[in-house]
Amino acid sequence: xxxxxxxxxxxxxxxxxxxxxxxxxxxxxxxxxxxxxxxxxxxxxxxxxxxxxxxxxxxxxxxxxxxxxxxxxxxxxxxxxxxxxxxxxxxxxxxxxxxxxxxxxxxxxxxxxxxxxxxxxxxxxxxxxxxxxxxxxxxxxxxxxxxxxxxxxxxxxxxxxxxxxxxxxxxxxxxx
Amino acid sequence: xxxxxxxxxxxxxxxxxxxxxxxxxxxxxxxxxxxxxxxxxxxxxxxxxxxxxxxxxxxxxxxxxxxxxxxxxxxxxxxxxxxxxxxxxxxxxxxxxxxxxxxxxxxxxxxxxxxxxxxxxxxxxxxxxxxxxxxxxxxxxxxxxxxxxxxxxxxxxxxxxxxxxxxxxxxxxxxxxxxxxxxxxxxxxxxxxxxxxxxxxxxxxxxxxxxxxxxxxxxxxxxxxxxxxxxxxxxxxxxxxxxxxxxxxxxxxxxxxxxxxxxxxxxxxxxxxxxxxxxxxxxxxxxxxxxxxxxxxxxxxxxxxxxxxxxxxxxxxxxxxxxxxxxxxxxxxxxxxxxxxxxxxxxxxxxxxxxxxxxxxxxxxxxxxxxxxxxxxxxxxxxxxxxxxxxxxxxxxxxxxxxxxxxxxxxxxxxxxxxxxxxxxxxxxxxxxxxxxxxxxxxxxxxxxxxxxxxxxxxxxxxxxxxxxxxxxxxxxxxxxxxxxxxxxxxxxxxxxxxxxxxxxxxxxxxxxxxxxxxxxxxxxxxxxxxxxxxxxxxxxxxxxxxxxxxxxxxxxxxxxxxxxxxxxxxxxxxxx
Lengths: 176, 577
Prior knowledge:
The structure holds two protein chains of two kinds.
Chain A: E1 4-13, H1 18-28, E2 33-40, E3 46-55, H2 57-69, E4 73-80, E5 84-95, H3 96-101, H4 103-112, E6 115-119, E7 123-130, H5 132-142, E8 147-152, E9 156-159, H6 165-175
Antiparallel strand pairs in A: 1-3, 1-4, 2-3, 5-7, 5-8, 5-9, 6-7
Chain B: E1 18-20, H1 21-31, E2 36-39, H2 46-54, E3 60-63, H3 67-81, E4 85-89, H4 93-107, E5 112-118, H5 134-138, E6 144-148, H6 154-166, E7 172-178, H7 179-183, E8 185-187, H8 207-219, E9 223-227, H9 230-233, H10 237-247, E10 251-253, E11 268-271, H11 278-284, E12 289-293, H12 299-302, E13 313-318, E14 332-335, H13 338-348, H14 355-377, H15 386-396, E15 402-405, H16 409-417, E16 426-427, H17 438-448, E17 454-459, H18 460-463, H19 470-476, E18 481-486, H20 491-500, H21 515-521, E19 525-529, H22 532-544, E20 549-554
Helix pairs in contact in B: 1-2, 1-6, 3-4, 3-17, 10-13, 11-14, 15-16, 15-22
């Protein structure tokens, strides 16, 4: 079976140990994570994890079964890139002097559609949201001009299909 | 499934007064019907022990000699009583010593609640004395765990702990309670947990899958059932019996499914797996329909997955959705409590017989008897065998003892030859293979079923891993019968060294102490048997004893356990010699 990129979405309670519990599922199977991000979800008090892994269809199915088995997990899904809308966010810190001395750098920023977040006499920070190739291209383009710092977030994604978490929670309320 | 607990509230206290967190823990235990706790005190759990002292007429605490003993005792108790076992320990080393038992309970689905003390919350993360991150350590081996830092959290979390431990696929839960939360006070009121929104203990069975399963059963010419512990955990023994009797399908068990059906039941065709019986292993690869009930296709059961039952359609009755299509891809999955699934199947199953198919089992059984069983049970050689020792235990316990085993050759022999009349009679460490399990587990097994005869069968290696629990047995006067089958070797490892490592016996020979003297040192009656002529009298004396009793049986040093499926081989490549 071929390895491809899967995005795993987990809806869960906000429990202090849950992050550890979920990452242990990957650790136990010796699977490296491409990225991991967690945030609030559309439902109050429900958290959402977005985990990106490179693996095959059989393994991702089993991993998601194990994640969903955890007591504090409401529901877990996995999707291919085609089934999700996803983005990453990157920040670039560059010496201010290069902005004025190197005319070319202004063209790079303009053509990449990056936005300038802050400017100070010593440095300026630009931000770009997009696909991996886009943030990566800008990193390569800026490197010759003295990239002081670079950081990229984990993938965040929403699915094209409906998730139905509120329905699950409502069913619980009705039956109890 | 829900394991039965006492319905009536054990306590009638005024719920409006403020009590300490430590007292709240005890009252939660009583509310959950837990009147027995195994544990070991220490600094960070002293407030709870102080309350145990006050409540000792209602809650019996068994002081084990090591926290691992507490965990295994709680497991043994859970396995024979069907209730949730409770173990307690202090922070740091107390908590880490529980971990082996917790891991064992996790892989063998044993309901257990472990309570650990923790350093005061303001010290968390400061590397305080006896601080260890037991939540982090126990996460991969618990069904759920939680650290309580406020007294007010205790009732709700304890209720959740018991609910999670006993419902769905049972398992261990660890609750870590900081010392300040034990000292602080709270307004105590207890409400049992009856649901958690993120947790579905039992899925709703689909009618469609029942119809599909029945159709496969109707078409089958050579159907075969393999059942596991799910039958026992789901209290589905009667449903299994009805299913097998009506359908006429021969059945075999995994090691943890043992005793769910009486040994002498005509549909009971023995054990599957590495040291299982010849017929059920060979015929796994001949059947045209394999019905797996409450089992999880462990590698010790399946051997090489690429050659496992490839010719057969497979129906899987399983509670845990994560077990379905995990190791073996199935044709029909009945995802629910197997008691419910079996009841549904039993409503519509046709009465059938499979005389030719059953004859295949009989024929292969005969081969196994001639090549293996005859020599194990009726040896011609001078040295005693493990098999004849077990057979003698069967004779004097009238096939009705609870047999607790450790891990290794004696375990395989005991599971092969011990005879059972009722369920929940086999207590062993199956999935984790924990040496040292049997002696403490036998303590719990006897306390969980006090009217039953409990015989712990242990090897000389595993016995020495938790031998200190003889102290607990004497102090509590628990009338367990301890049989050590002594071959002066770590026998199973030695067997592998003989067969697969060219007889290089690296670190498997044991120069053993005088076990009888040791038992006597713990003030337990003890005897040693070296000759066949003395075996019967010794076992009869042991079974008739009303007190704890230790019997060492010196067996042949280099016997092997057969049949055997070599690791990674196919079930049909099972060896008889």
